[in-house]
Amino acid sequence: MATVEIISFGFLHAPAPEADVVLDLRRAFRDPHVDPRMRQLTGRDRLVRRAVLRTRGIRQLLGATTRQVQAYASGPSVGRIVIGSGCAGGRHRSVVVADQLARRLRRRGHTVTVTHRDLHLPVVQR
């Protein structure tokens, strides 16, 4: 079984990390940042997690990415697969998707590490 490293990040803080797969969540999925109740929260908070997971298409993206990792893992020379999960500020969508993807992959037997690169940074003013 392959080892999977998942890195959540914000495109507005620094470039995407080098990865086998980068999920760009900025345009296609609802941004909790626009809701003042969630702006200062993170993807670790229940309200944000629910908002992201209830966004149309997110669960399908998680399923497709899980299948993509499985395909990479079946290759002849894979040892480590790196997945980047990015949104604007790296505090909401990217965190939820990274954590949920890790959960799914662990259930399938992968060893998974998750790093939230920008979670500790202040909310991006936009």
Strand and helix layout:
Layout: E1 3-10, E2 21-24, H1 46-53, H2 58-73, E3 80-87, H3 93-107, E4 111-116
Identify the overall geometry. Answer: globular
Helix coverage percent = 25-40%
The residue-averaged pLDDT reads 95
What is the terminal separation in angstroms? 42 Å
Q: Into how many domains do the coordinates divide?
A: 1
Low-confidence segments: none
Give the count of helical stretches.
Answer: 3
The helix/strand class is: alpha/beta
Radius of gyration over C-alpha positions, nearest whole angstrom: 14 Å
- Quick one: biggest sheet? 4 strands, parallel
Strand content: 15-25%
Describe the structure in your own words:
- This is ATPase.
- InterPro entries: RapZ-like, RapZ_C.
- It comes from Streptomyces leeuwenhoekii.
- The protein has 126 residues and is an alpha/beta fold.
- The protein has one domain.
- It contains three helices and four strands.
- Strands 2-3-1-4 form a four-stranded parallel sheet, with helices on one face.
- The radius of gyration is 14 Å and the shape is globular.
- 35% of the residues are buried.
- The model has no long low-confidence stretch (mean pLDDT 95).
Short note summarizing the structure:
The chain has helices at residues 46-53, 58-73, 93-107; strands spanning 3-10, 21-24, 80-87, 111-116.
Question: What tags apply to this protein structure?
Answer:
31% helix, 4 strands, 126 residues, globular, RapZ-like, ATPase, alpha/beta, RapZ_C
